[in-house]
Amino acid sequence: FLPDEIEILGTFAHLAAGAIENARLHEQTQDLAVTDKLTGLRNRRYFAQRLTEEILRAVRYTKPLSLLLLDIDDFKRINDTHGHVAGDLVLQSLGSVLTGQLRQVDLAARYGGEEFTIVLPETDFVGARLVAERIRRAASEMVVPISAGREIRVTVSVGVACFPLCGDTAERLVEHADQALYTAKQEGKNRVCLYREILKAQLEQEPGRIVELLNQ
């Protein structure tokens, strides 16, 4: 190449490098906007968007879809007893456990505080129960080391709702998963509860209320 041509190529290369770097920074900024800083999981904003997308996909292809809502049992006691730094370590450790228990197509997100959500595409209530129980066991086996050689062990409660039986919108699916989680807490914690089972129990007592119950 002639000197002038080399100069032109150098200018193009410099411009291209700048464009690539700008694109990389833009992508990184977008990723940070939907990522929970503490756990590295997706945040509530991304979860809401993804759940809506998965419901549309489930409708289009007539596939099942399940939602898990889980909560660390007695998390306030952990913070009160060991401090918020220890509580953060528990949240980080649980985030890693969740990631290790899921498929690539699944989504784990931090919903807020000590609550996490998991979206399971193409998964019915049978598969969702298996995943929820696997996560519950893995959480109970988790050991979180803290200062002075001490360690923390935790348990989680999990509520499960399945589309479309347990709700035909994102809002209802989350609401019913939350009701199932509340029932798991009320029944003693460290357990899995399916909203489907709540429906079944209520319908056995009052047949014919399925539409009313689903709209609550």
Tell me about this structure:
The longest helix is centred in the first third of the chain and has 31 residues, at 3-33. This protein is of the alpha+beta class and 216 residues long. Helix 3 (75-82) crosses helix 4 and helix 4 packs across helix 5 (125-140). The termini are far apart. The model has no long low-confidence stretch (mean pLDDT 87). The strands form two sheets. Strands 2-3-1-6-7 form a five-stranded mixed beta sheet, with helices on both faces. It has a two-stranded antiparallel ribbon with strand order 4-5. The protein is 57% helix and 17% strand. The chain has helices at 3-33, 44-61, 75-82, 84-101, 125-140, 170-186, 195-205, 210-214, and strands at residues 65-72, 107-112, 115-121, 144-145, 151-152, 156-163, 192-194.
What's the helix-strand series? HHEHHEEHEEEHEHH
Unreliable parts:
none
Would you count the extended β strands for me?
7
Global mean pLDDT? 87
Helix percentage range: 55-70%
Question: What structural class results from the helix and strand content?
Answer: alpha+beta
Question: How are the strands of the largest sheet arranged?
Answer: 2-3-1-6-7
What's the Cα radius of gyration?
22 Å
- Based on Cα principal axes, name the global outline: flat
Q: Which percent band covers the strand fraction?
A: 15-25%
Total number of helical segments? 8
| N-to-C span | 75 Å
* Largest sheet entry: 5 strands, mixed
Topology:
Elements: H1 3-33, H2 44-61, E1 65-72, H3 75-82, H4 84-101, E2 107-112, E3 115-121, H5 125-140, E4 144-145, E5 151-152, E6 156-163, H6 170-186, E7 192-194, H7 195-205, H8 210-214
Parallel strand pairs: 6-7
Antiparallel strand pairs: 1-3, 1-6, 2-3, 4-5
